[in-house]
TrEMBL record:
Keyword line: ATP-binding, Cell membrane, Kinase, Membrane, Nucleotide-binding, Phosphoprotein, Transferase, Transmembrane, Transmembrane helix, Two-component regulatory system
Topological type in the membrane: Multi-pass membrane protein
Protein name: histidine kinase
Gene source species: Paenibacillus plantarum
Source species, domain of life: Bacteria
EC number: 2.7.13.3
Domain Histidine kinase: 407-594
Residues that span the membrane, as ranges: 9-30, 290-309
Reaction(s) this enzyme catalyzes, per UniProt: ATP + protein L-histidine = ADP + protein N-phospho-L-histidine
Pfam family, one: HATPase_c
Stretches assigned to coiled coil: none
PANTHER family given in the database record: SENSOR HISTIDINE KINASE YPDA, SENSOR PROTEIN KINASE HPTS
Length: 601
């Protein structure tokens, strides 16, 4: 049984711990992996946004450089010159050098700046000497820019500059009176290497990278310098254009994810890429960590569960052994475990129960011994009663002869005395009934008073106030007559006077039946009354028949009290109330007929 209990406790704990670990581990891993994936997607988005923002800021900064040229009066005068005014063009070109120089000095990444008017004016300046310079090709390039409708009064970025490795920043110059009437164009040739320096500072992990393509699929920047300037594969370019602002995969690029976003300012598309294995490496580490920690925790929790199970089963085994010994009749106390927990409280309760059971068994044993002693005494009393009946007819016949002689001698007093005595003797020695009716007890008192009339030489009537409803109720035989006799003996010690009364009354409730015998005699002294009530209260330690009556020649109150308790139980009997000089009231407490049935059961 103990081993089964240990196994059950151990198995239940292991199941609970395993379920908790699996639930927490799986839920934690699932949520953590989702969070990490979302963080990587957010990281890609943030990096792309930052690169685009920095690139746009870098390119927008050159709008300020163009403003310093646009507001120059020299530029206005040059563009307002007559068509092919040679002398004016020459002087204006010389003056334009002074306008270009501050811009070139402050922006060394600009290799070339130029203004070309629709009136034939043309001025150029360089940050470094460019050899050889193809003027014819430059003129053709400028003519293309003039005819390009996408170029307007705002700064426009052309990724295919006139000079190799350069971007063209170009804008058309409008008349001051009309923003749609253009008089020429102004452009910068910007080294693309400056942007490459900016882009190279962006890191996407160990294997991540990004590249930039224009709206035609030309690669403007790539970590692999061999791919710069080349065209992106058509399928890849279509995917990049279609999946803008999304995480996607490219055909032919297994194990990598991409994210693209297009700049509204430059029109370029920036594509960032990361390795899926690198992206999921923290998730793999997390999974491995959860497994290792879960296994270690499971072993530790299993060990603790075993120890906990043992801490529960060990006291149970002690209790089981103690119960086995108690079942054999050996009242065994279980030692405490010393943990001062609920198990120790249980052991304390068990030891208390064993102690009380031991006391109860001893009490029952003593009660059984007393019952056997009482039974023996009762048998002796019955034997003595039987002895009194050895020849009762002889006594009764003798009394009848006395009555006959009293009739012959015409002595009614002797006849009444003997007849009353005969009835009282017959009533006293009857053994067929333990309980008698109230009417029979009152009849017995009637014969007793008949004798007392001749003894006291005067009539005395007892005031019987018992309702006729109670006359057939049961009570113990020979209880009223001893109490009435006790009144004559002790309440009226100096003789009966006219003022003396004896009252017999009765009442009852659902469970209890009370009969009182009350007199207005001399009463009982307080000390004697206390001793009497103490003896009545402690009567269960007294003998069933009091061998020391209260007064010589009378049956003692304890005799009546003990006989009532023998029939109905220890909670019933006599109680005495008295006040010296005012009389005494003795109350007989007995159960009702319905309560007697409950007692019998």
């Amino acid at each position: 049984m103990n081993s089964r209990l240990v196994r059950k406790v151990y198995i239940y704990f292991v199941i609970i711990i395993t379920l908790a670990l699996v639930t927490v581990g799986v839920t934690g891993y699932w949520r953590s992996s989702n969070e990490l994936e979302n963080q990587y997607e957010g990281l890609l988005t943030q990096i792309v946004d930052n690169v685009l923002h920095e690139t746009d800021l870098f390119l927008k900064s050159y709008e300020r450089a163009t403003l310093s040229i646009l507001i120059s009066p020299v530029v206005k005068e040059a563009l307002d010159l007559p068509y092919h005014a040679t002398s004016g063009f020459y002087s204006s070109e010389i003056a334009m050098k002074g306008v270009f120089q501050p811009v070139l000095i402050n922006n060394p990444e600009i290799s070339m700046t130029y203004i070309v008017g629709y009136n034939g004016f043309q001025a150029t300046d360089f940050n470094a000497h460019i050899v050889p310079f193809n003027y014819k090709g430059f003129d053709e390039y400028v003519e293309q820019m003039k005819d390009d409708d996408t170029i307007n009064g705002k700064l426009t970025i052309k990724d295919s500059g006139f000079l190799d490795g350069h971007l063209t920043l170009i804008r058309k110059l409008a008349d001051r009176t009309s923003s749609t009437l253009f008089k020429g164009i102004m452009g910068f040739e910007l080294k693309i290497g400056e942007l490459n320096t900016l882009w190279k500072g962006i890191k996407l992990g160990n294997s991540g990278y990004f590249f930039i393509v224009n709206d035609r699929g030309k690669i403007l920047y790539h970590p692999d310098s061999n791919r710069i300037g080349k065209q992106l594969d058509g399928m890849h370019f279509n995917t990049v254009e279609a999946k803008t602002d999304q995480v996607f995969e490219l055909p032919g690029e297994p194990g990598r994810v991409f994210f693209s976003r297009k700049s509204d300012y430059s029109g370029w598309t920036l594509v960032a890429s990361m390795s899926i294995s690198e992206q999921r490496q923290p998730i793999s580490d997390l999974r491995q960590t959860i497994l290792i920690v879960g296994i270690i925790t499971l072993f530790l929790a299993t060990f603790l569960a075993y120890r906990f199970g043992q801490s529960i089963v060990r006291p149970v085994r002690l209790l089981e052994n103690g119960m086995r010994q108690t079942a054999k009749g050996l009242w065994t106390r279980v030692p405490l475990t010393g943990s001062l927990d609920e198990m120790d409280q249980l052991i304390i309760s068990y030891n208390t129960m064993v102690s009380r059971l031991e006391e109860l068994v001893e009490r029952v044993y003593e009660t059984e011994l007393r019952n056997q002693d009482n039974m023996m005494k009762r048998q002796q009393a019955e034997f003595q009663s039987l002895q009194l009946q050895i020849n009762p007819h002889f006594l009764y016949n003798t009394l009848e002869i006395i009555i006959c002689y009293a009739v012959i001698q015409k002595s009614s007093e002797i006849k009444d005395i003997v007849r009353s005595l005969s009835y009282m003797l017959r009533y006293s020695i009857r053994t067929d009934l333990e309980e008698i009716t109230v009417a029979n007890e009152l009849k017995h008192i009637l014969y007793f008073m008949s004798i007392m009339k001749y003894r006291n030489q005067r009539e005395f009537e007892i005031d019987v106030r018992i309702s006729t409803d109670y006359l057939l109720d049961s009570m113990v035989r020979l209880t009223l007559q001893p109490l009435v006799e006790n009144v004559f003996k002790h309440a009226f010690p100096y003789g009966i006077e006219d003022k003396h009364t004896i009252i017999i009354d009765a009442w009852k409730n659902d469970r209890d039946f009370y009969v009182i015998v009350q007199d207005n005699g001399c009463g009982i002294e307080a000390e004697s009354l206390l001793q009497l009530n103490t003896r009545l209260l402690n009567s269960r330690q007294e003998k069933l028949v009091d061998t020391q009556p209260i007064s010589e020649g009378s049956i003692g109150l304890l005799n009546v009290h003990n006989r009532i308790q023998m029939v109905f139980g220890q909670q019933y009997g006599l109680s005495v109330q008295s006040e010296q000089g005012s009389g005494t009231k003795v109350t007989i407490h007995m159960p009702t007929s319905s309560a007697k049935k409950v007692i019998a059961v």
